[in-house]
């Protein structure tokens, strides 16, 4: 049994805090895990309001080396004394690569995080296990990985921004687990434009194609998305595949 709670996302109901970023809490087979930490550490306050005790998290993972997913880990480490954070080694390098190109806003993680908290990060490329039934699967982007949970409904693939492409990621996961279907994908799809959540960064036909590929070709039953998907892309996907689209907001709870 997997129970997912969105601890922070770009939107939130009145009693919770929103920020650009994503953090998911997992209750999997009675154990507590964390995927990502948002940008600032505010997800800790949301966890308190939602009754989730972050000091009990046993292990954590970083989906990829971007600041809107790793920036809150200092706050997490102050709250939680034991959980290691499993990340790919290239997550440390993403910031340096970004700053090498002055035309790009650095999206990478502040390198101080990895030096100050070196003892809390466990860096390896994988595939490896976060726990029995809970897999970390690297994808084609050097610093990115999916968290894949085996559930009674099938696999639940969590990938916070899907920089490698949501359909590619699901396709590869299906190849690695040929006897199990992908029941759900959870995360942002990186379709937003440069001017904020109201903008679209790709051609509309690309969004329609992605939702068709996920729902029809790859037979994903639930597409749970928010964060860097953006509103126009979400609306296009809702028109294309209305039956299987679920929005992610701060505080959203999903059970599989
Ligand atoms: Zn990202
Ligand atoms: Zn992101």
From TrEMBL:
Gene3D superfamilies: Ribonuclease Z/Hydroxyacylglutathione hydrolase-like (3.60.15.10). SUPFAM superfamilies: Metallo-hydrolase/oxidoreductase. SMART domains: Lactamase_B (SM00849). Residues 20-227 form the Metallo-beta-lactamase domain. Pfam families: Lactamase_B (PF00753). InterPro entries: DHPS-like_MBL-fold, Metallo-B-lactamas, Metallo-beta-lactamase_dom, RibonucZ/Hydroxyglut_hydro. It comes from the Bacteria. This is MBL fold metallo-hydrolase. It comes from Pseudoflavonifractor hominis.
